[in-house]
Amino acid sequence: MDQLQKKIDLLDKDRIPVHVAMIMDGNGRWAKKQGFNRSDGHAEGVSTVHRVTQMSSDLGVKYLTLYAFSTENWNRPTDEVATLMYLIGWAIERELPELLRNNVRIHLLGDIERIPEEPRQRLFYARDATAHCTGLQLNMCLSYSSRWEITEAARRLARRAAAGELDPENISEEMLADNLTTAGIPDPDLLIRTGGEERISNYLLWQIAYSELYFTPVLWPDFTNEEYVDAILDYQNRERRFGKTSEQVQNNE
Ligand code: IPE
Ligand code: IPE
Ligand code: MG
Predict the structure, then answer these.
(1) Distance between CA atoms of 116 and 113, rounded to whole angstroms?
(2) Which of 6, 34, 147, 187 is the most interior residue, by most CB within 10 Å?
(3) Nearest to 7 by CA among 195, 240, 228
(4) What's residue 143's pLDDT?
(5) Is 0.90 topped by the overall pTM?
(6) Helix 225-236 to helix 38-59 angle, to the nearest 10 degrees?
(7) What percent of the chain has pLDDT over 70?
(8) 96 burial class (0-12, 13-18, 19+ CB within 10 angstroms)?
(9) Looking at the domain assignment, is residue 192 inside a domain?
């Protein structure tokens, strides 16, 4: 039996995280190490996206949320941004037949209107073509930042209050959550960041209030399915207390 299968067998199939979020970091450093351009690192990173999507489907993860391009990433050199935009459009088109075969539904989170016309149309096409799929939901965060979406949510609620449709006193946590791009999606159980940095970089700040965080030094293009299963095994060894005591959790109180 191969190493990957051995690890998969160690998983508790009843406690697979429902929602896994990932910060896909380390493409640039991976490329530099090989003496390539940063863009080659991004191209290689697409293979990892393919792998983790397949693995998530196979393991029965229901939601996989990937940080592909942040609001802050617009400040990168113009040619790197252009390559990333090109790659996003190219990859979604190439992957679409297999996504459909695997019953994967694409969902887009972020300020998608900022994405250039051509890749944006390809993203919309893939989203619409997979709208009927009932397997894994793949949330692609593009031109996304958490502060952006929380500000948008505040603006929307304020507009309704100003129009007299909403009493500010009645604004609840649920209402705020319902106005985020992740409305209707359960919070991530597990957040994985590759590339060695131990920071959140403006990602899902509201939604990860009680997520388990997993940081690995492995660069995104090198992130294997074995490492993914390691992260889930680590997650399964943690006790999620949500503010309660360990005794309460163990007694199912
Ligand atoms: C992550 O890899 C991909 C994006 C942010 C789009 P980086 O490009 O940030 O790689 P490093 O961190 O420079 O190695
Ligand atoms: C976070 O990676 C954003 C994505 C993975 C898309 P960065 O490489 O942009 O993060 P920082 O700026 O180093 O924190
Ligand atoms: Mg980085």
Answers:
(1) 8
(2) 187
(3) 228
(4) 98
(5) yes
(6) 50
(7) 100
(8) middle
(9) yes
Pocket perturbation via mutation, ligand 2, pick of 66, 72, 145 by most ligand atoms within 8 A of CB? 72
Q: How confident is the model at residue 253 (pLDDT cuts 50, 70, 90)?
A: very high
Cα(217)–Cα(227) distance, integer angstroms: 11
Q: Is residue 9 part of a domain?
A: no
Interhelix angle 78-101/38-59, nearest 10 degrees:
30
What percentage of the chain has pLDDT greater than the value 90? 100
Q: Please report whether residue 5 resides in a domain.
A: no
Indicate whether 16 pLDDT > 80.
yes
Phi-psi domain of 239 (left: phi exceeds 0; alpha: psi -120 through 50; beta: other): beta
Residue 167 has what pLDDT?
Answer: 98
177 is in which domain, residue-wise? Answer: 14-252
- The ligand 1 site (C-beta within 6 Å) comprises 24-29, 69, 73, 84, 195
- Let me know: does 81 contact 74? Beta carbons within 8 Å: yes
The predicted structure's pLDDT at residue 25: 98
Closest ligand 2 atom to residue 28 Cα is 8
List the residue whose alpha carbon is closest to atom 6 of ligand 1. Answer: 69
Residues whose Cβ atom is located within 5 A of ion ligand 3? 25
Total tally of structural domains belonging to the chain? 1
Q: Is the pLDDT confidence value at 1 over 70? A: no
Assess if residue 2 is contained within a domain.
no
Strand partners, 192: 22, 214
Could you say which ligand is closest to the alpha carbon of residue 41? 1
pLDDT mean over 76-86: 97
CATH number at residue 196: 3.40.1180.10
Nearest ligand to the CA of 84 is 1
